[in-house]
Automatic annotation (TrEMBL):
Residue span, NAD(P)-binding domain: 88-296
The organism of origin for this protein: Hibiscus sabdariffa
Stretches of the chain forming a coiled coil according to its record: none
SUPFAM superfamilies on file: NAD(P)-binding Rossmann-fold domains
Protein name (database record): NAD(P)-binding domain-containing protein
Length: 331
């Protein structure tokens, strides 16, 4: 049975409180979920390393000393009528989705196995901004209808590693997470939703072909494709974002203020494709922003997009630029 947890916190970005009815000395452990391509959450060796700035955001788009634009720090925005359920909200992409929603004053609800991780990342938020439900998508009994009441949009960022690792402990395999968990979630969602955005991976349609078959040795691409297909056939309004190899982050040892200051280095330009033809890398920050932008772009409903990021100036948080990118994908 799902458990709802309440928060009481006024929302200064400068610090994150951790008074979530818990042992205040509880340390944040690495989440079982990672996202997208299923690579290890260590970012060493990836291009576009995280650039962190020490000063707190003051509502404006900030720049680091080498003019890197912060994707997740738009100017102050009015509150939204949306209620966005984020599944996998403490993973590499999910935590950036949640941080961006909070910055935009969009009410969010998280479905998490371990709510303590949300407190470590986002602090104790007022329930009008952030709600937490404890549950596991691998267990259908956890997906109580109450957790979906009032939800208008869903962003699912769950995932695990492609190859056996410690993150597979506790039956956290691709089959259980990318297929069974996604299937259980979609089966429980109400048809009244305005959009479901699912983060998947490039290469899912070619998992029997080299080099993708190497990545798929333990089924990660096959199971992601099964999750995609189940969503497509569900009758729910959907958008699927297939990410390339993920760079920048994950930032699971940081707090909300740090998340909001993360940048995509020099790889801010965005390439969007269709037909599963893109090969390359993508910043987790870009994937998170693409998910949020897709919620409001009507023509992305029922579509599947691949996404990479390359060196150059990108769309940032500009809705018009994102609309143009989604409107003219590479095929």
């Amino acid at each position: 049975m799902a458990t709802k947890l309440s928060f009481t916190f006024q929302f200064p970005l400068e610090k994150s409180s951790k008074s979530f009815q818990r042992n205040p000395n509880l340390a944040l452990s690495n989440p079982n979920h990672c996202d997208g391509f299923g690579f290890s959450k260590k970012s060493s060796g990836f291009r576009g390393q995280l650039s962190l700035k020490e000063n707190a955001l003051q509502g404006e788009v900030t720049q680091s000393t080498n003019s890197e634009t912060t994707l997740l720090s738009p100017t102050s925005l009015p509150s939204s009528s949306k209620l966005v359920l984020v599944v996998g909200g403490t993973g590499g992409v999910g935590q950036l989705v949640v941080a961006a929603l909070l910055k935009r004053n969009i009410k969010s609800r998280l479905l998490l196995r371990d709510p303590e991780k949300a407190v470590s990342l986002f602090g104790n938020q007022d329930e009008e901004k952030l709600q937490i439900f404890k549950g596991d998508t691998r267990n259908p009994a956890d997906l109580d209808p109450s957790m979906f009441e009032g939800v208008t949009h869903v962003i699912c960022c769950t995932g695990t590693t492609a190859f056996p690792s410690k993150r597979w402990d506790g039956d956290n395999t691709p089959e259980r997470v990318d297929w069974e968990g996604v299937r259980n979630l979609i089966s429980a969602l109400p048809l009244s939703l305005k959009r479901v955005v699912l983060v998947s991976s490039v290469g899912v349609t070619k998992f029997n072909e080299l080099p993708w078959s190497i990545m798929n040795l333990f089924g990660v691409l096959k199971y992601k494709k099964k999750g995609e297909d189940f969503l497509r056939e569900s009758g729910l309004p959907f958008t699927i974002i297939r990410a390339g190899r993920l760079t920048d982050g994950p930032y699971t040892s940081y707090d909300l203020n740090t998340l909001l200051q993360a940048t995509a280095g020099q790889r801010r330009a965005v390439v969007i494709g269709q037909g599963d033809k893109l090969v390359g890398e993508v910043s987790r920050l870009v994937v998170a922003e693409a998910c949020i932008q897709a919620l409001d772009i009507e023509f992305t409903e029922g579509k599947i997009y691949e996404i990479n990021s390359v060196e150059g100036e990108g769309p940032g948080t500009d809705p018009e630029k994102w609309q143009q990118l989604f409107k003219t994908p590479q095929t």
